[in-house]
Prior knowledge:
alpha/beta; Alkaline Phosphatase, subunit A; 7-stranded mixed β-sheet; 16 helices; globular
Amino acid sequence: MKYVLIIGDGIADEPVAQLGGVTPLAAMSLPQIDRLAGGRLGLCQTVPAGVPAGSDTAILSIFGYDPRTCYTGRSALEAAGMGVMLKPGETSLRVNLCALEGESFDAAVIRSHNGGSIEGEEAVELMEDLVSDPRFAALAAAVGFGVHITPTFRHIGVIDAAHQPAAYPTFTEPHNILDSAIAGYMPKGVMGAELTALMRASFEILRDHPVNRRRIAEGKLPANCIWPWGPGSAMTLTPFDELYHKRGSAVSAVPLVWGIANLCGVDTPRVEGATAELDTNYEGKVEAVLAALAGGADFCCVHVEAPDECAHAGDVEGKCEALRRLDARVVGPLLDRLGEVDPEHRVLLLSDHPTLLNTRGHDGKAIPFAIYDSRCPGEPRKFDEAHAAATGDFLAEGPMLLRALFE
Length: 407
């Protein structure tokens, strides 16, 4: 028996006026996803009460780990995903390259939490030039702050043990304040002023950088400011094969998912052309899932980030298009070809958490899930929040999901 988990990041939502007062899942024709709903359909509370809603806490929960006891911060997971294993006493930070608009840092408005979807050589060049700038380097050295650069908008900051703050500063997630003035959202508390100084310096250094001048000329947003957030410390997870006695693999373009997988001993094959955006390599991800299962994995997770990114941008049509592509280019091909690997297979589809177009932020409400079994597929039915609720099938916590898939 082979098992597949499909995470459509943030596909759950609330009713949207532009869609006639229904959610994107309800508004869309998604025939392949509806095939999955012919099996078991219900709701699950993936984010425990009192825990911040996010892919970090939700996906930990889905994989079987209680974020109330194991979670030490999102950046620790992303660091592990990029091969940065924290030492005792170190603090990791997420370091986004963001797009700010304005002549001065104090009066700036944040337009993009991902620097206008910057990636590749441009992201690396900007960050390399920033960390080597004498002004920035001096401010960073004063607080023991180093940056591990990646070819994405997401970079890994580490505060060394010698400069460990007595308490974490208070940070604001940049994707939750898009199109807002940043002045009220600077880091606060211990080391808050020093981190704000680093942000200010990055804006003044990067705003006229040749890469950003070129991006503006091409009609793109500049990636002109770092935004640290999500502090964390070293995290340990029980190995996946000890929990479930199964060999696992996880296909994603997101360091967070790689980090959870790395910490619990699940393989993380990389897919060329896979991004966290709408233009990701869907077909490559499907091939990676099939190859992992054919190569001996019992379980494979495939994670698609695009719906979440579109919702953070307030892009209704983008989120709907992400659902169309998830349906036609991931779910459909997997259902059609999983039988080539094993005629008997089960597939779990879910949203890790809702990401709301109305607020452009995460929500901790229960999410719809569907479990398909090739041996008894059932008749297709609508997969959305209302239909899932109407079944009365409710799982009270995320770790129940994989147990239900494997039972």
